[in-house]
Amino acid sequence: MKTVTGFASATIGNVACGFDVLGFAITEPGDEVILTQREKRTDLLPVSITSITGDGGALPRDPKKNTSSFVVLKFLEYIRTNKGIDFEGHIELQLKKNLPLSSGMGSSAASAAAALVAANELMGNPCSKMELVHFAIEGERVACGSAHADNAAPAMLGNFVLIRSYNPIDLITIPPPDNLFCTLAHPHIELRTAYARSVLPRTISLKTATEQWGNVGALISGLLTSDYELIGRSLVDAIAEPKRAPLIPGFYSVKNAALEAGALGCSIAGSGPSIFAFSSSYEAACEVGEAMKQAFSNIREKLQSDIWVSPVCKEGAKII
Ligand SMILES: Nc1ncnc2c1ncn2[C@@H]1O[C@H](COP(=O)(O)OP(=O)(O)OP(=O)(O)O)[C@@H](O)[C@H]1O
Ligand SMILES: N[C@@H](CCO)C(=O)O
């Protein structure tokens, strides 16, 4: 019997202007997946879920429906076909769900990335993280019907990750500037990614597209040159934010509070309802967090929120 624990942290997709093509990881919170290898298969499938904590009973226990176990099944198929490793035993999976569901914090991707590094370790590390990330991305299809990579890729690889192409997958990791800090405000409501995607426009005008790709290019340049002012000016989303803001009570009040408190920029984290902001020091990011929390509690709905202040995580999914 061998036991391994994988950890992967929350991630923030889109980063304002990079809808489905840009995301980054923060250092905490994150999901933990504990895998225990048994010699004998105890089920038809080689993976079974023995416990899930922290989800209030909301997540599927069927191994084909939970992202954590689904990606391990895909990984085992892959190493059998491509690496000549035919695993005949059984894997018991325990999921410690520390990330809130439908939060915009990449909850489903964190479970998948944590499970994959643990499974890879159990099997003697036959795959690189660049190989594993493909399964994590497929896990997103199980979670919300779309295999977007802007949570799964940074959950696995850390840093900022730019998805240059989906077909074939071409991922570019971008290390963060040294003094960039993220404030993440998670209001206590849920917004399902599938629904938040359904409100988006199917087509956009050339004017909107021009504005958006100008900002994506400038944001990448700002990250690579540690130009904090440019990073701030580029955090503009002309496509998703205007459509999703009405789904998040108090979105503009919280965004304005963050900017007034000195944030470089602020937008929706992934598909929401969480909201993120960047600052150029830890102290500034903490002040921004207080302002965001206060603003959520001041709106008509008086929303409670959790605040995290974090640098960008450079490590990605890991064994703990
Ligand atoms: N291990 C898992 N963790 C979280 N959600 C899972 C997991 N496995 C399956 N799901 C399914 O994914 C859905 C949650 O997905 P959703 O994409 O809305 O949340 P999220 O991962 O927090 O999203 P976001 O990318 O916006 O942060 C739920 O329907 C849930 O059943
Ligand atoms: N890019 C995805 C991220 C989901 O967290 C979306 O905006 O729908």
Automatic annotation (TrEMBL):
E.C. no: 2.7.1.39
Keyword field: Amino-acid biosynthesis, ATP-binding, Cytoplasm, Kinase, Nucleotide-binding, Threonine biosynthesis, Transferase
PROSITE patterns: GHMP_KINASES_ATP (PS00627)
Recorded metabolic or biological pathway in which this protein acts: Amino-acid biosynthesis; L-threonine biosynthesis; L-threonine from L-aspartate: step 4/5
PANTHER family (alphabetical): HOMOSERINE KINASE, HOMOSERINE/4-DIPHOSPHOCYTIDYL-2-C-METHYL-D-ERYTHRITOL KINASE
UniProt family annotation: Belongs to the GHMP kinase family. Homoserine kinase subfamily.
UniProt-recorded name of the protein: Homoserine kinase
